[in-house]
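Minutes, project check-in
Item: structure for the 328-residue chain
Input as provided by the requester:
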Amino acid sequence: MNILVVGGAGYIGSHMCKKLYQLGYTPIVLDNLVYGHRQAVQWGPFIKGSLDDTDLLKHLFKTHDIAAVMHFAAFTYVGESVQNPAIYYQNNVAATLALLQSMIEADVKNFIFSSSCATYGEPVEIPLTEEHPLNPISPYGRTKLMVEEIMRDFEHAYGLSSIALRYFNAAGADPDGQLGEDHDPETHLIPLVLKTALGQRADIKVFGNDYETDDGTCIRDYIHIVDLTSAHLLALEKLLNGGPGGCFNLGNGNGYSVMEVIDKAREITEKPIPSEIIERREGDPAILVGSSQKAMDELGWEPRYPDLSVIIEHAWNWHKTHPKGYKR
């Protein structure tokens, strides 16, 4: 069964392709390689192209029997979305709309969307559930919510079956060491900490230590990349089996502070990892932790690697063998 994975050369998409292949699916990757890596595409055919290339999409759906589409092709830098919202609305919304229109024309009706907890905005309660108000505070978050709303309208009008998975901080790496996290620029805490351990950075910057948490640093919810792909697979199979769509949070359920992450990385890497406290970043909530109870109840999802030590250990194993990322 062919699954079109858009953004399949990226961090999450490439791990998803491996999971699909292991379970007998054929992942077909469509990626423009703006942020993805050709070396990460190892488990199925690769097509270089963009979501808004409607001629390419028409040809792709005509020449391949596609059972479902999984979307990992969004731009994801919150700060950049504030400074240059146009490219976020173009790539994340307009291009996704072109994809969905091509799907409907080709009678492909199953869609899994990589959404985000950024759709919630500032938390009014912790942990965040799917019932939390949706009030995104960045163009990035708004693009994710807009696509979710388009999905609901397409379900009503065209019979699209879709699931949006809102997740928190994807982290870790493939336990086999074949795939890892390689962004440019890198903004995620764990790879930045590990790059510091490798001596590629002088220190790790900590944005504030005066929050109302035990150690004064922000608490975030980290979810292992393999657990993330497992949830996507369960969502896919739910749709393929005729189940209803919807929205689901994906998180660990346990938050870890910035200093807890740094201290755990020091323990695992046996490196000093210097840190420097600097000013808070605007808009950073003290605690951001989600409830995944709905995904557990309705998808049958159960995280396999919830422990921070394992998440960092798997990431460290990949960064040690790929100090320059996919360029090695």
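Outcome recorded: Residues 2-170+222-250 form a domain with the Rossmann fold fold (CATH 3.40.50.720).
No further action items on this chain.
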